[in-house]
Amino acid sequence: PKNVDIFPLAEKICRRAYGIRVTGCKSAKDRTSMGFTLEQGQLLVNNHNIDRHDLQDILNQFRRNGTSIENALANTGIKAYAFSYIQLRTFPEYYRAQPGTYGNVQT
Question: Which of 12, 36, 49, 107 could cysteine-pair with 27, CB 3.0–4.6 Å?
Fold first, then answer.
């Protein structure tokens, strides 16, 4: 699995210091979308009394119906993230796009 443990730590440090942090990948849509939707979901859980057990459902909704999938459509002409099934198996669970939202898309 990818080592992404630094991301939540950086998010907390920047938020507490009223700082700025940027998350990006090479095309700034697929991995970036997984990262910022996870951060949004964690903010809901931590700050708005949302049950942690609902986090995966929240992530699925953000990723299926939010602006990030629309950005993928605008950039590639296909409403899907550019991940393969095998590639997603290497991602930590909360960074995985749900079935039906990814495919072999050229970026």
Answer: 107
